[in-house]
Design brief:
It contains eleven helices and four strands, in the order ββαβααααβαααααα. It is an alpha/beta fold. Among the domains are: 70 residues; 89 residues, no CATH class. The protein is elongated, with a radius of gyration of 26 Å.
Length: 250
């Protein structure tokens, strides 16, 4: 099977006991394209609590609901627009003959706009409850229900490095970012590293972070320190992310 259709969800156990799930499903446009050709697995280091997995599955269901709603809105927009526009014109023409008032157009336009909007809303609700929408929703849920989490040595290493950075102060973390020698992630697999990095790229709002840490000068250190102080960046997770980036073949 094409490795592009192999997706991995990572459960990261934080030092304070909280769970962090990293996955690609926040992208609704990508989520809606999933089908049975995809194989999805979950990896963890420290075993997640049952309630954490339950909450995560519920989060996936909410993402599916949102993705299906957006998908139906997109594919049915033009038909809804045409029909609601036709309703607007029909109501306007009928009202023009029925309503006789000293100020023409006002009442007719109000009724026509109200009618067109009502038709659009009714059609939208009907589309969301359609068989096509229900099938897509069910297919995606069944796909998510097949996900099985298993223990993984690479994720254990990720958690150990994360826990270490969570146990030291921000200044020590920032200084460690400039270190060039790194023998971390001896159990890593290229595909797992690439996927985890891609999730963290989005978590940290894009690849501009990579540029900052490749040349970590004093100005960049000050910026990172301020972000951490203002809780604008998860510095411990960022340090682990930086170590992952060093494992990418140049």
């Amino acid at each position: 099977m094409d490795t592009k259709n192999n997706l991995t969800i990572f459960h990261i156990h934080r030092k304070d006991g909280t769970s962090l799930f990293l996955h690609p499903f926040s992208d609704s446009q990508f989520l809606i394209t999933l089908n049975n050709s995809y194989t999805i697995k979950g990896l963890y280091g420290n075993e997640p609590r049952v309630e954490s997995l339950t909450m995560f599955r519920n989060d996936l269901y909410r993402l599916i609901e949102s993705a299906v709603k957006s998908w139906m809105n997109d594919i049915r927009f033009i038909p809804r627009f045409i029909i609601s526009s036709a309703a607007f014109l029909l109501i306007y023409l009928v009202a023009s003959f029925v309503i006789r008032d000293p100020i023409p157009l006002i009442d007719e336009l109000v009724l026509s706009f109200a009618g067109g909007i009502a038709v659009y809303i009714i059609m939208s609700r009907k589309d969301q409850n359609s068989e096509k929408s229900a099938k897509k929703r069910l297919d995606l849920r069944l796909l998510m229900d097949k996900i099985v989490f298993e223990e993984d040595e690479f994720v254990k290493e990720v958690e150990e490095i994360l826990h270490y950075h969570e146990s030291i102060d921000n200044i020590s973390i920032i200084n460690s970012l400039a270190e060039s020698n790194d023998n971390s992630f001896i159990n890593s697999k290229p595909d797992d590293i690439k996927q985890l990095i891609s999730y963290l790229d989005k978590y940290f709002s894009g690849r501009n972070y990579r540029k900052k840490i490749e040349n970590l000068n004093n100005q960049e250190k000050d910026k990172l320190s301020k972000w951490a102080k203002d809780n604008k960046i998860d510095l411990s997770l960022f340090a682990m992310y930086k170590k992952l980036l060093k494992r990418i073949p140049k």
